[in-house]
Amino acid sequence: MANAFNLTAQINLRGPTNLKPIVADIRRQLGSISANVNLNLDAKSAKGIEAVTNRLTAMNTILSQARSNADGLANTLQGLSNSLSSVQQTSSKVSSSISGVSASASASSKDLKKASSAMAEFGKQSALAVKRFAAFSFVTTGVFALINAVNSATKAFIDFDKQTITLQQVTGKGAIGIRALTTEITR
Fold first, then answer.
1. Alpha helices in 31-42 (DSSP H)
2. What's the distance, Cα to Cα, between the start and end of the chain in Å?
3. 164 Cβ contact partners less than 8 Å away, ≥ 6 residues apart
4. For residue 32, is pLDDT > 80?
5. Percent helix, strand and coil across the chain, each rounded to 5?
6. Is the separation of the CB atoms in 13 and 53 below 8 Å?
7. Is the pTM for the entire model greater than 0.85?
8. Residues 24, 26, 27, 28: is their CA dihedral positive or negative?
């Protein structure tokens, strides 16, 4: 409706654009005929036509603005529709992501329960291993102490024997001559 009115208003306001070629064509066809035409317009009529023209020009401007505003509103509504569609897609993605997180949390909870029971079992086995190690350590400590004592006694005997041989060499007496001294030392 607005387009038809805009077109009518523009035709009425502008007038024909090809007037000069038409006038030239008519003059050529009429040739040498000439006539004086006097057009008398009442001053009130001229003012009325000018007022109507001004009002139509103002109306044309207002309608152009209305059309521009309607186009802007249509673009805005289209953008809103696109945004709402995007929000819907995003919300469905968020919903599926939350479902995934929930499933992962559930699986993690089950895994943590399994891990805690495995850790408890590991603790029990570790305590048992420490008890066994302590029992073996207690026995082996006694065995090692005995071996070390035998080792020390052997070294002490060898040192004593060396010193006895050195004493035999220094005094010039044999093993029989030093036997009394050896008996006294070992006593």
1. none
2. 140
3. 175, 178, 182
4. no
5. 85, 0, 15
6. yes
7. no
8. positive
The pLDDT tens digits of the residues spanning 86-129 come to 888 887 888 788 888 888 878 888 888 888 888 888 888 888 88
Q: How far apart are CA 95 and CA 98, in angstroms?
A: 5
pLDDT for the residue numbered 10: 57
Q: What is the mean pLDDT of residues 9-13?
A: 57
The single-letter code of the amino acid at 44 is K
Q: Which long-range contacts (CB under 8 A, 24 or more apart) does 13-19 make?
A: 13/53, 13/56, 13/57, 13/60
| Sequence-separated (6 or more) residues with CB below 8 Å from residue 4 | none
Q: Which of 77, 68, 56 is nearest to 13 (CA)?
A: 56
Q: What is the DSSP string of 43-87?
A: HHHHHHHHHHHHHHHHHHHHHHHHHHHHHHHHHHHHHHHHHHHHH
- pLDDT value of residue 78: 87
45 has pLDDT over 60: yes
Q: Is residue 70 within 8 Å of residue 3, measured between CB atoms?
A: no
- Evaluate the CA torsion angle 175, 177, 179, 182 in order and state its sign: negative
